[in-house]
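Work package 3, deliverable 3.1, input record:
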Amino acid sequence: MSEVSENVGALANSVFANIANKWALLIIETLGTETLRFSQIKARMNGVSHKMLAQTLRNLERDGIVNRTPYATVPPRVDYCLTDAGRELQQTVHGICHWTRSHLDHIEAARQRFDSAGG
Amino acid sequence: MSEVSENVGALANSVFANIANKWALLIIETLGTETLRFSQIKARMNGVSHKMLAQTLRNLERDGIVNRTPYATVPPRVDYCLTDAGRELQQTVHGICHWTRSHLDHIEAARQRFDSAGG
DNA sequence: CTGGATCCGTCAGGATACTG
DNA sequence: CAGTATCCTGACGGATCCAG
């Protein structure tokens, strides 16, 4: 209960903070079961900056969610794909994306209701 | 091909930004199938501030994910629970929380590997 | 092409105080 | 107890340049 649990809590918290953000979830969803290069990922995601993509990709790699494979060619080429753990996570992330898409009208209606109610 | 952030863009993006953050996901997970008061939610969540809880709760309510029920008693009392749509979402969110918990050691190992590799 | 570093503006988010 | 407003700091995130 004392220190061990707190450490686990802190770790879980930092892990959660790493994956519970827009870019991380979108990267995971974008990768899916594919293997993509840096520029391909960037092209498929709307409005992600060079910096944030590199940074988030790096975090995901560090957590063993994304697999990074650099090739010593000229010009350089780096492939990214989900690890086994990453693919497990992708299943649930996909669920969120699916939910978001299929509830867009529901949410838009709820917002209008809320806003016109003087919220 | 139709990614979350392609054509549907603006709305999907704002919806996604609302739920794809640490506090929103943790609130959804904390609520689960229960009905809790403001102070109860705050007590169950680790390190959330009064402000962020109120703010995130408000966003979730606006998007029709959380149901807010105020009672005109003294002292005031407000109950929160997930809506039907919210409970659907909670299923997948729970998947992420479950994944995080069951992969903590995997991730910790991956981090140590990454850090000691001179990352 | 990939990715790190730097500068810099914007805003998330914590602390506090006040209302009902 | 619940919610809002204010202030303020640090982190996020974009643009750009440099390196391999």
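Residues 37-39, 50-51, 54, 58, 70, 74-78 of chain B lie near DNA strand D (CB under 10 Å from a C1').
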